[in-house]
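Suppose you are handed a protein chain with no further information: no name, no annotation, nothing but its sequence. What can you learn? This example shows the usual starting point.
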Amino acid sequence: MAVDTACASTLTVLESGVAAIQSGRCDVAIVGGTIPLLIPETSVGYDEMGVLAPDGVCKGFDARANGYERSEGYGVVPGTRSTASFAGVRISHCGNVSGGLTKPSRSAQAELIRDTWHGAGLDPRNDADFVEAHGTGTPVGDTEEGNGIAKAFGGGKKKVPMASSKATFGHMEPAAACVSLVKACLVIDRKTLLPQANWTQGNPDIDWSEVEVPTQSRPLTTRDGKLITIGINAFGFGGSNSHCIVQEYRDPRRAVAPGGGSSSWCFGEGGNSSQAQQQQKQQQQQGRPACVPLSATSVAALSELAAKWADGEISEASAADVVAWLVKHRSHLQQRCCIVAASSGEFRDEALKWSSGEPRPGKVVSGKPVGRSLGSGGSYRLAKQASVLVVFAGQGQQHADMGRDLYATFDVFRATVDECGRYYAEMHPDGASFLEKTGFFRGGRRRPS
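A reasonable first move is to predict its three-dimensional structure. Written in structure tokens, the prediction is:
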């Protein structure tokens, strides 16, 4: 389906896609915007209208704003039923209140913004961390939008930062919000606000008592576990308005909040009890043991990290998911420890004991990787010539009974397998090694029948 609401097109399509998913009309919606600048006549017409900047630079919300610069590009945003980053998106029209085809309406924009945030169960005055504005750099458009943002987001505890990516990339018109969406996601991912490009001083016709434009990079932080929440504006020629809320998605496997209370991982089976009872039950419940790997660049840093994990809170997550994420997606630095626990309460106790220098034998394994040293950028490099590495890949590079032959003839291989067997036995209630339970490596030679 093709949609054209001028510079509001991408968010208009996004609203249609989200509505289609929510209503069950589709499971996946691919939202995109594109603008190829193929003919000069359009640019000539815009120039004659006086909306293009003579110097070819967008200066959003700046006192020197004198028009925008056209640019071309495209973007695609896939959406599914599991998408959790869009807290809300709505569209509207200025009606006949703006006073002109190209003149926006601050009251209509402010009303749409409030409706979108309230519809998502959010307060624009206190829940907004940043606004990615339309901000084309036209004097009339910037004045109307800037005051509309101040009207909708003003009245909170602090000024709301706003900026426009068009000052950096130019105005991609129907595809402009694709850039805004990408920028919003990067701001959330990097947790950093970037300075507005081409900025000197603010447009004097904007109420700056409620909003501000970042002039230097600064961290974007929240309190009490609050999700980072960003509003995005897109307004079109002819009166089309659209607003979207992009919110941080906090994977429960990553949502560690030091100082946020005791750990509440689900080591065992859950139940239908209340949240408080369930959390207490999880603290005490014994489940399958988990080996939680932590690492840092120094012993002191590792001790501090273990203490933070002990006091952190991970809700609605299983220990297996937490461990899988740590193993696959975290860098394994020079100083390491592995904490073995069968409940969240036990993990907390062992982590605190290890960080205070009183670990229990068999519950925490710590040290440095053998034969490696830390290279530049946190990566590892071999400190000596690599030894032979044996890999059982299961893809035909080995022969029958190869492991038994190695176990019987190579001391290093046999010692390593036995060590793995001891760790396995420590983590299982019956205390039996997997070598004893399976007969791996130690059994007699089996001949193919």
